[in-house]
Amino acid sequence: MAINLQKGQRESISAPKFTIGLGWDTNSSSTGAAFDLDASIFIMGDNKKLLSDEHFVFYNNLKSPDGAVEHTGDNLTGDGDGDDEQIKIDLSKISPQASEICIVVTIHEAANRRQNFGQVRNSFIRIFDTGSNAELLKYELEEDFSIETAVEFGRIYKRNNEWKFEAVGAGMKGGLQDYLNKYN
Q1: With 0-12 CB in 10 A as exposed, 13-18 as middle and 19+ as buried, what is 7?
Q2: What is the per-residue pLDDT for 121?
């Protein structure tokens, strides 16, 4: 039975291998343009900065150098039920310098398409055991992000040699570039 989290809530992750599933529905009739939401992963050290450029995992860099984080690929539409994008995590392979994995979802070309997260609904992040497919944690974003074009859904962090997940749900207006500036 999965644990449904509220914003700010933290929970331990017991499985060393798990998959992060991200999902959403869009209201494409509001702008006329199709939505393309993208999941990105920032693998950071204690200084809250990327370990290297290669530790930014997204649709153009699908795997971290240590093989611990693997993006399964870009979903250009978000159509259908279930996960729209997935990231596979194997904490047994992660670099010893890594202390945080930040999970961000952005809207591709949001400014040009006049799109924001206010037009996105049913957004969620879930963590499930890769082997058994048993859902461990789920966080559904319930807030209205009417001006934001990027949202940090959650973060996985190490504290006292234990990995935990925090439901973050914090938005930014500047899209992916804001997060690249913040974590680089």
Answers
A1: middle
A2: 83
